[in-house]
Amino acid sequence: MRIVRVAPCLVLAYLFASAARADEVQFNNGDKLTGQIISAEGGKLKLKSKVAGTVELDMADIKTFSTDKPVALKFEDGTVVRQEVATGADGQVAVKGGAVQGQNFPIKSIKYINQNESWTGTIVAGALITRGNSDTDAFNIGFDVTRRTDSDRFNINGQYLFGRQRDQDTGVKSTSTDNWRLGAKYDYFLTKQFYAFGSFGIERDRIANLDLRLTPAAGVGYQWVETKDFNFSTEAGLAWVYEEYNNDGTNDNISLKLAYHVDKQLREGIKVFHNLTYYPSLEQLSDYFLITDAGIRVDLTEKMFAEFKMEFKYDSTPAPDASRSDLRYILGVG
User: pLDDT digits over 273-293, tens only?
Assistant: First the structure.
């Protein structure tokens, strides 16, 4: 009987102890919130709470905080400490254990908590298949992956588009779209915002009679803004543009590479983006290649989204019998 009575007490004691071990955030206004501190970046601390769910907190509003497990604190000077955190004086936290046992650090000096330096990215795919009054097949797939650290950034991206339709009178199928591209780019940050880059692009467009286009380039860029909600960067450099046509030899020149990227989160779950890259030949400015896109991405779930974008390409010296411009509207789920 005694064992039966003691067992519920032990269970309750365990539950209270588990609750007591939760991370705790104390705010300047006296409020407190408990849960699990997931990460911090860009002045925002992410906390997973049983009461409020996953929330982002402004670190400027935090008086102090504590954790029940070791976390990785990265400070503005590059120092990294992996220890449990205890509450400190106003605007500060203390570190448990290690060589810095009991030492206080200003919260405003913390740049990251549990910084994620792994690869992140997206994959988008779409399809249109019709039968009956029309007979068409259209497919598109694209991917974009990035690894970002304090000192550098590496990006790989690619896309493949294919479209085919059948003439209802003759029964002959003709291909209307068949092109692919791959790109890679490495940025090394010389300062917090100024970086040097090297990039390489390769593509083929069978409908435009383009067997191969190579665009290796190098130069410098400036990251004007880099936050979760808004990013804007510009670049300038030199590139070698090599084009090989399936009906008229080759063309190559030394060009400038001028580019910019911008994306903006309009509201939770909705983001717009725009990119432009311009290659004017240094030998003849009227000879240039340009590619730009603009689109919108809407979250469907935590990890899935719908994307619509417009892509425009212009080649002032295309292959014979090919158009200078290509305009595409691409819809997919990622």
Answer: 999 999 999 988 888 989 999
